[in-house]
Design a protein that fits this description.
Elements: H1 2-114, H2 116-138
Helix pairs in contact: 1-2
Length: about 140
Amino acid sequence: MDILLALAAIIAAVAFAALVIFLVVSVAPVLKETKRTLSHVADTLEGFDKQVNGIIVESQALLNKTNKLADEIQEKTTKLNTVVDGVKNVGATFTDLTESVRTVSKAVHQVAEENKETTAQAIKWSTVVLELFKNNKNK
C-alpha cells in the first residue's frame, strides 16, 4: 500500500507539474501581451500628461490676457463715464440756455404786446415827420 501511496503522490506531482507547465505555457503569452498593453498605456498616459501640461500653460496665458483685457475695459469704461458726465453737463447747460432764451423771448413778446399801440403811434409819427422833412427839403 505504501507503494500505491507513493505512486499516487508521484502521479499527482507529475499531474501538478504538467498543470503548472501548461499554465505557464498558456498564460505566458497572455502575460507578455498584458505587459505590452500596459507599456502602451503608460506611453499614452505620458503623452497625455505632456499635452495636458501644454494645455494648462496655454490656458494660463489666455487667462492672463483675459484679465488684462478686463482691466483695460474697466479703465476705458471709467474714462467713458467721465465723457458721458461731460456730455450730460453740456446738455444741462443747453437746457438752461434754452430756458433762458425762452424766458427772455416771453419777456420781449410781453413788452411788445404791451407797447403795441405806442409803437404803432411812434411809427405813424415818424412817417409824418419824414414826410414833413421831405416836403421842407423840396421847397
